Amino acid sequence: MLRPDPTFLGVPFATDAAGADVAVVGVPHATPYAPGRPSHATEAPGAVRAALGWYGADTSRWDFDAGGPLLGGATVVDLGDVPGDLQDGAGNRAAISAAIGRTLIAGAVPLVLGGDDSVPIPVLEAYDGHPGLTVVQVDAHIDWRHEVDGVTHGFSSTMRRASEMAHVKRIVQIGARGPGSARAEEVEAARAWGAVLHTARDVHAQGVVPALEAVPEGSDVFLAIDVDGIDPSVVPGVILPAFGGLTYQQVLDVILGVAARGRIVGVDFVEYVPAKDPAGSGAKAIARLASVAVAAIMQGRR
């Protein structure tokens, strides 16, 4: 693993996750559509780590978003970044799964900072053998393409690949809007598999409660947050801004609502593009949401 500077909120760097409740793992590279070309989100882990350095992980501070102390009393370490090879998507996936697998064996919950939306595929593969995982995705797109230009593990295929994993039993997708890579056949495939789709319009009209009710009570949940699911007024730095996204408060409600219904066993934040966010406001929003996610994880570990 590559040591980060700074770490997320200034938490300690560690070479393993032993004794930690939550372990931050940066994943700049996963499966490129064009070998040799860096992902648009390669610089995201470092930008999100640095965004809130002004207050650090001072757990004496009260977090009014989470309704408790900052980070919820969690012991958090930063394991650094998984090394990647721009020419070797399969090798990147193996390295990512191995890093997440070691974290899970150590008993910590992974908090993954991507990287583009191909990152969750090998992250979820590391949960192989789990008796039953619910994936809750926040995203402007449903990511059900089987392949794009012959690449089957790119960022348009994330939920399609997840649906093929025996340990993934349920998929709840929140925030779809506008056009993306999905065609009618992908929408039909998602619904035929049993994915529950709540568009951004649904959320704005009905709130997040109907979507949360699709999460089985007491289930183990992996929370996959593609930040283009959030409105670009909050996170402008994405490759394909789509108007009408979820508000910061709605994403908070998803995170805390999932924790109230089940147990969060993993979280990722992907698809942030620092170059499209020169003021860094999106990085701050993502880092805040990640901080609340740590507190939400602790609800299920008590």
Could you characterize the architecture of this molecule?
The protein starts with 21 loop residues before the first strand and ends with a helix. Strands 4-1-5-10-9-6-7-8 form an eight-stranded parallel sheet, with helices on both faces. The mean pLDDT is 96. The protein has a single domain (8-301), classed as Arginase, Chain A (3-Layer(aba) Sandwich), CATH 3.40.800. The chain has helices at 44-50, 89-105, 120-125, 158-163, 184-193, 200-206, 209-212, 248-261, 281-301, and strands spanning 22-27, 62-63, 68-69, 76-81, 109-114, 133-138, 168-176, 196-199, 220-226, 263-270. With 302 residues, it is of the alpha/beta class.
Write down the Rg: 17 Å
Number of strands: 10
| Number of helices in the DSSP assignment | 9
Helix content bin: 25-40%
Strand content: 15-25%
For CATH, the homologous superfamily is named as Ureohydrolase domain
Strand order of the largest sheet: 4-1-5-10-9-6-7-8
CATH class: Alpha Beta
Count of the domains: 1
Explain briefly what this protein structure is.
The chain contains nine helices and ten strands.
How do the helices and strands line up, and which of them pair or pack?
Blueprint: E1 22-27, H1 44-50, E2 62-63, E3 68-69, E4 76-81, H2 89-105, E5 109-114, H3 120-125, E6 133-138, H4 158-163, E7 168-176, H5 184-193, E8 196-199, H6 200-206, H7 209-212, E9 220-226, H8 248-261, E10 263-270, H9 281-301
Parallel strand pairs: 1-4, 1-5, 5-10, 6-7, 6-9, 7-8, 9-10
Antiparallel strand pairs: 2-3
Helix pairs in contact: 1-9, 8-9
